[in-house]
Amino acid sequence: MSSDNLDRTALTRRTLIGGAGVVAAGAALTACGSSGDTGEARSAVPAPTTTAPPGPDAEVVAAVADVPVGGGVMLESKRLVVTQPAEGDFRAFIAICTHQGCNLSGVEDDRIICPCHGSRYDLDGAPVEGPAKRPLKTRPVAARGSDLVVG
């Protein structure tokens, strides 16, 4: 084989390997950018996930009287937030912000608060302020007599 043929073969291999690298890098960048979160404000916030009623392993977490209508309570030991947006309508959420996983700090007036980056959620768990775009993760909750049961 002449040195001209070796140089062409080497150049062709380099071109092929380089081209494959460019394609792989492009695919990786596309995968990283395809989360659907463009950083722009959304006009419609998705509704919180609906859940089934508490099951047989349900646990009493609070008294109905402890959760004010139009407000809520933080149950730190259970890592839950329980709200009552309207009389008799209870909601339970895992007390972790959907933005970057910070622990929620409580309920002030009619907002669930994340202290890390200023996200605020309404009593239905939908984000209304700050960087969070997704609703809080729900837990099934029901009033059974004077108890609130989650499970």
TrEMBL record:
It comes from the Bacteria. The keyword Iron applies. One of its GO terms (molecular function) is monooxygenase activity. Coiled coil: none annotated. Residues 37-57 are annotated as: Disordered. GO terms for cellular component: membrane. Residues 59-150 form the Rieske domain. Gene3D superfamilies: Rieske [2Fe-2S] iron-sulphur domain. Residues 37-50 have a biased composition (Low complexity). PROSITE patterns: RIESKE, TAT. CDD domains: Rieske. Its cofactor is [2Fe-2S] cluster. Keywords: 2Fe-2S, Disulfide bond, Iron, Iron-sulfur, Metal-binding. Iron-sulfur subunit of the cytochrome bc1 complex, an essential component of the respiratory electron transport chain required for ATP synthesis. The bc1 complex catalyzes the oxidation of menaquinol and the reduction of cytochrome c in the respiratory chain. The bc1 complex operates through a Q-cycle mechanism that couples electron transfer to generation of the proton gradient that drives ATP synthesis. This is Cytochrome bc1 complex Rieske iron-sulfur subunit. It comes from Rhodococcus pyridinivorans AK37.
